[in-house]
Design goal:
The chain is mainly alpha-helical and about 120 residues long. The chain has one domain: 3-Layer(aba) Sandwich (Rossmann fold), CATH 3.40.50.1010. The protein is about 60% helix and about 10% strand. It contains seven helices and four strands, in the order H-H-E-H-H-E-H-H-E-H-E. Helix 5 crosses helix 6. The radius of gyration is 15 Å and the shape is globular.
Length: about 120
């Protein structure tokens, strides 16, 4: 979802709605989100899609959002969800966080959407 906010050519109506909501109300993300975003940005620099100045601007914009990073997943639940839905641990972190906080999940990933529905986790938007 966040990657859609970074690149104009990957824009989705769903991602715009989530961005507005995060801007207004904040959000939770697993600590992994921090590294994932920076990996996308540095990879984009290497492929010429972005330059260091644009990366800095994106990071400044993201820092203005109230995204609270979570460092304390329930390990048993995390592994259970990953096994049950055949998810990577990376994706299961998002699912476990939404489950634990009883919060909606914002994703465009089809496997994660199926898993969230199976776990009765509300999807955004």
């Amino acid at each position: 979802m966040t990657c859609c906010w970074l690149f104009e050519d990957e824009n989705h109506a769903e991602s715009e709605a989530v961005l507005l909501e995060v801007g207004a109300n904040g959000a939770y993300a697993p600590n992994l989100w921090w590294a994932e975003i920076r990996n996308v940005l540095i990879t984009s620099e290497r492929t010429g899609r972005m330059n260091p100045r644009e990366t800095a601007m994106v990071l400044t914009s993201l820092a203005r959002l109230d995204v609270r990073l979570d460092n304390e997943p329930n390990e048993v639940e995390l592994l259970t969800l990953a096994r049950r839905h055949r998810l990577t641990i990376y994706d299961a972190l998002y699912l476990e966080l939404a489950h634990r906080f009883k919060a909606p999940l914002a994703t465009l990933d089809h496997a994660l959407i199926r898993a969230a529905r199976s776990e009765s986790i509300h999807l955004k938007p």
